[in-house]
Amino acid sequence: MTTAIAILLAAASAVALAFGAMFQHSGVVADERHRSGFSFVHFLALFRNRSWILGLGFLCAGTVANVIALALAPVMVVQPIGAISLVISVLLAVKYRGLKLSRLIVAAVIVCGLSVGAFVALSATVARTSLHLGADAHPLAWIGFALTAAFLVLGLAWRRPPQLLLILGAGLLFACVATSTHLVSHQLLHAGLGAITWLNVVSLAAAGIVGSWFMQAAYAAGPPEMVIAGLTVVDPIFAVFLGSVVLGEAAGAPIWLISILVLIGLVACSGVVVLSRYHPDVIERERERRSARALLIRTPDAGE
């Protein structure tokens, strides 16, 4: 019964994520200053944008639902359900942004959705939650710190990283957030406040802050459907990896099932790659870049 409630809450969270992405993307692209590069200062300035704040409200509501879901069921079951938000996000783009869907885009969305759905169905048959206390919980915190530091340095050193890299960073960091949230909430529910490992809480917060920055930068770098696609594939797959390997949620799973899960994950990732190459907004941005580059090359000759 608790697993069913967790699945419903995760689905509600996915709906909120789709609406939050639409409003936050609108807020980010409204500020033309991001075209020269999306810095942490630009991220902080978004807190004065009404559309972005509305999107933040949706994301906060979705986060609360997802946190409760993670407290009730294993990460392997809860986190992949976010794939529902990709379908909703595409439908919102068609209605409000006039997105024209090609057969390839529709196929990519279907592949992502069905793959992650199959992932949830299979992982639910083997996922088991166990309580991790004290030093047993610290490996997850150190993984979160390491990834946070790596992407923080990357974000500060690379002025305009490609959207796919930003999505990858946000997805990996939010996977750490989800897994740590599950671990900490499980500690609180089953062992009390005194059992919480605060190192994991700090790691969770750090990954959440840098991951949020990367997500907003990804909105500035391309269409929101790409961000949702990446987050609903990279995030759950890495979260499942952390849950199964670090937290031992798949300790009883046979090798053949693990192999199938890995294969399904790769298929889901292929759908995101297709979206990153053939989404209409991505193609249009690439045309603009090529035109600008060609103009810069021709300008010196014209001056001569």
From TrEMBL:
Signal sequence range: 1-18
Keyword terms, alphabetized: Membrane, Signal, Transmembrane, Transmembrane helix
Top-level taxonomic group: Bacteria
Membrane-spanning ranges: 67-92, 104-127, 139-158, 165-185, 191-214, 226-247, 253-275
Main location group: membrane
UniProt topology in membrane: Multi-pass membrane protein
InterPro entries to which the protein is assigned, alphabetical: Mg_trans_NIPA
Annotated localization: Membrane
Pfam family, one: Mg_trans_NIPA
Cited PANTHER family: CONSERVED INTEGRAL MEMBRANE ALANINE VALINE AND LEUCINE RICH PROTEIN-RELATED (PTHR40761)
Protein name: Magnesium transporter NIPA
